[in-house]
Amino acid sequence: MNKKLFIPVFILAAFAFVWLVLRFSPYPQLKQFLQRPYSVRYYDRYGMLLQITPLAEGLRREKPQEIPEALKDVFVFSEDRRFYRHPGVDGLAIMRALFQNVSKGRRVSGASTITMQLSRIISGSTGTGWSRKIAEMINALRLETRLSKKEIIELYINSLPFGFSTEGVTSAARTFFANEISMLSPSEIFCLAVIPRRPSLYNPLENPDICLSAASELQARFADNKRLARKWPLLAQIEALDFEYTISSARRFRYPFEVPHLIRYINSKDSQVYLSVDLALQHYLEDKIAGNVTMYYSSRLTNGSAVVIDNETAEILAWAGSADFFNNEAAGQIDGVLALNQPGSSMKPFLYAMALEAGFNPSDVIADIPMTFGESEIYIPQNFNNRFNGPMLLRSSLASSLNIPAVYLLYRLGVKNYTNKLLELGFDSIINSAQVAGLGLALGNAPVSLLELTRAFSVFPRDGILLPVTWEKNGQKGSGQRVFSADTARLICSFLSDSSARVLAFGAGRSFRTSFPAIFKTGTANQYQSIVALGATMKYTAGVWMGNFTGETVLDKTGSSVPAAIVRDTLNALHGTGSNIIHNFSVPDDLQLKRICSVSGMQPSPGCLSVINEYIHNDEERKTCTWHMIINGRSETVYPAEYQSWFAFSFRQGSLDYGSRSLEIINPRDGFVYISNAGMYDIPVEVIGGNDDVLHVTHNGETFITGRPFVFFLSRKTGLNTLNVRNGDEEEAVTFTVER
Q1: CB within 8 Å of 107: residues ≥ 6 apart
Q2: Are 373 and 392 in contact (CB under 8 A)?
Q3: Could you report the per-residue pLDDT of 44-88, keeping only the tens digit for each?
Q4: For residue 180, how many other CB atoms are within 10 A of its CB?
Q5: Model confidence at 170: pLDDT above 90
Q6: Cα 268 to Cα 42: distance, rounded to the nearest angstrom
Q7: Potential cystine with 374: which of 11, 160, 379, 429 (Cβ 3.0-4.6 Å)?
Q8: What phi, psi does 4 have (nearest 5°)?
Q9: Can you give the pLDDT at residue 559?
Q10: Helix (H, G, I), strand (E, B) or coil at 381
Q11: Are 198 and 187 in contact (CB under 8 A)?
Q12: What mean pLDDT is predicted for residues 333-351?
């Protein structure tokens, strides 16, 4: 090789080698630093700041969307004027500092570049001496080979410690001046530029005069720089009054802490998130829950939660997890929207919807009479008021929340089938509890979350379509899933919006009274430890839970009216502005309103005295009522045989057609198991049907006869028991066990 070329080639090769080493040698600290978490800015749907999430030990470090060029130039001028002209280490600055320090006999200036300062921040080094400086220089050179100047200055500016648990200029602008970085005034920029020099000394909150002096001095030098003065005339022409006003107006920003349960649940990694939440509605709900908790504190009601969904988009408009997030005594940090609680009767609409899908008709009558279900484990449901109401239409059974008809429907539909339908509705929480709950699933004995419950309830005003809920404003949502037909959903809306149908259970109370069409359903469970109310219009669905996270029983005088009133008031607030068009619930397409007997559900006969309108399928066969007939010029009701015990329980008008069905042992069922209690005649027996008025009974070989109604008791005899009954030519038998 030509000797003249050897030296430059060697130098280039050496530079290339050094550059490659600096560029590709392991630098795990940088990788870790670039992956460090940032505080997340959460906004409501209208841009109101909800939270800037703190990091470890309350530190807030926000990632800026874009750092203004003027701010970059001020920081570069303040810390490293040759930043854009050196490779990370400024040789001229080192020589100048060395000369000044030696000539003065003490340290009067430093030579740390912005890149060197950033390398120190990355490594977390706090040591002193030449070894630290050399390490900073090497790492600064490594940074320059891996990052652009733009990336370095932005990373540096947004990594500087400003004190007050604040890191980076984005958070500092908010902490000291309650301002977004893009909205900083010229004087605020210079104030922020001097704080990192020594945060405890130069911050405007504790030492305003020192901060004012340093910022003014920096600005004066900046203005003397002709290039920068021409580029940023506003920064070069700041008057003293501007600085004085800026310093005097500095106040430590109070970071908001809104929607804490939802934000903790989301736990986003993005720098900023726009939620679908409406902060005004959120505050309204929080105040309602806290106010009612205070009002009913003597009833041992200590907590509540609520969630509101926009039916059209499935966006979450409000999410109140507890009455007070900071109330540790009441376990306020538990999220009641996600916590699993027994929902009680609020689950019944899904059961009735499934029954309608399975072939039950709105005109069908269910017997609200004493019933016993089960095999080895006996289940005897009771209504909330310990009364039996006889024949009940589906509409009134659901609207008045009767328990026995609900259990009967589940018995007919099957626990497994209903469980699958609930899973289809999004009740993932019941996977392990549904089978244990058994027929109690009809009464909401399996714990679910308020979010699951409210989301599922929204399928009814949405014509049977289930949407995935979202907390993002205009977020990407998946397509809806049909879980009920449109007509089924519309029938449930008709049932639950019918104030006359709920009178039996709730009277004419105000808890469900609105000036617009709305559906409501409530539920209580765990001896009033869990009280739930759901409500919906065509536009919104709201759910409220109240009770105790700590297990105490709420005194029952509060009832479900408390959360129901909150749901009602919330819907009133949402629709009360006049800006929302309030739509009526849709009517079924394949059904028509026709007159039916309110007792039998059949087509009215001349003897029917109470006739109502109900939806009838267009192809539904309609029989003329056989329960009412004209006898001696008067209408008389003749009830079928299955109403025997109900009819005999109290004085009833009318009569009973005992022979309207075949002989059947209603209780005990075959395979029942009882616990021994010798000497007490307490095994109830009920037999219905048959044409004769005398029943021949054989129990374990002992025979006796009884007359109508065929209701009597047997003594408990340990072991296997056989019961045989005969009425005319009909005979039935069951076996049951009495265990010790």
Answers
A1: 101
A2: no
A3: 999 999 999 999 889 999 998 789 999 999 999 999 999 999 998
A4: 15
A5: yes
A6: 9
A7: 379
A8: -70, -25
A9: 65
A10: coil
A11: no
A12: 95
- Residues 160, 169 contacting (CB under 8 angstroms): yes
CA distance 36 to 122: 11
Q: How far is CA 438 from CA 82, 407, 417, 443, 663, in A?
A: 77, 10, 12, 10, 28
Phi, psi torsion values for 194, nearest 5 degrees: -95, -20
- Tell me how far apart the 2 most distant CA atoms of the chain are, in Å: 137
Helices 186-194 + 169-177 axis angle, to 10:
110
Would you give the DSSP letter of residue 39? B
With contact defined as beta carbons under 8 Å apart, do 171 and 61 qualify? Answer: yes
The residues with which 597 forms a beta bridge, in sequence order, are 611
Degrees to nearest 5, angle at CA 674 with 671 and 680:
135
Is the CB of residue 536 less than 8 Å from the CB of residue 458?
Answer: yes
Report CA torsion sign: 525, 361, 617, 396. negative
**Residue 301 and residue 296: Cα distance in Å, rounded?**
6
Q: How many CA atoms lie within 13 A of 517 on its CB side?
A: 18
- CA-CA-CA-CA torsion for 397, 398, 404, 405, nearest 10 degrees? 70
**Separation CA 651–CA 714 (nearest Å):** 26
* 193 closest CA partner among 350, 67, 308: 67
- Distance separating alpha carbons of residues 514 and 571, to the nearest angstrom: 8
What's the CA angle centered on 135, arms 130 and 140, to 5 degrees? 125
Chain position carrying tokens 């590709």: 24
Beta strand 448-449 pairing with 340-341: antiparallel
Instruction: At 641, list the tokens.
Output: 């045989």
Residue 660 near residue 641 (C-beta atoms within 8 A) = yes
Helices (H), 83-168: 91-104, 114-123, 130-146, 149-157
What does the block give as tokens for 130?
A: 């030449």
Closest listed residue to residue 351, CA positions, set 437, 243, 476, 255? 437
What are 684's two structure tokens?
């109830």
Asked whether 52 and 181 are in contact (CB, 8 A), the reply is no
Sign of CA dihedral 279, 284, 285, 291: positive
Please report, for residues 71, 96, 186, 255, 572, the alpha-carbon distance to residue 250 in angstroms, rounded to integers and kept in the order given.
19, 37, 14, 15, 42
Q: Are strands 316-320 and 303-310 parallel, antiparallel or unpaired?
A: antiparallel
Average pLDDT for the chain:
89
The residues, any chain, with a CB within 8 Å of residue 401's CB and separated by 6 or more, are 345, 348, 384, 502, 505, 521, 522, 523
SS3 for 119?
A: helix
Residue (of 394, 467, 461, 462) closest to 425 by Cα position: 467
Q: Which residue in the block uniquely carries the two structure tokens 């010798």?
A: 678
- Nearest residue to 724 via CA among 662, 647, 665, 657: 665
Rounded (10°) angle between helices 114-123 and 149-157: 60
DSSP state of 603: B
Tokens of residue 399, six digits: 């609207």
Q: How far is CA 92 from the centre of its chain?
A: 61
Q: What is the pTM for the complete model shown?
A: 0.88
pLDDT in tens, 430-479: 998 988 888 899 999 999 999 999 999 999 999 999 999 999 988 655 57
| Backbone angles phi and psi of 201, in degrees to 5 | -105, -40
Q: Kindly provide the residue ranges of all beta strands, DSSP E only, lying in 216-374, ordered along the sequence.
A: 272-274, 303-310, 316-320, 340-341, 365-368, 373-374
Q: What three-state secondary structure class fits 406?
A: helix
Say if residues 186 and 235 touch (Cβ distance below 8 Å). Answer: yes
Asked if residue 465 lies in contact with residue 482, where contact means CB atoms within 8 angstroms, the answer is: yes
**In 3D, which of 357, 401, 413, 427 has the Cα closest to residue 507?**
401
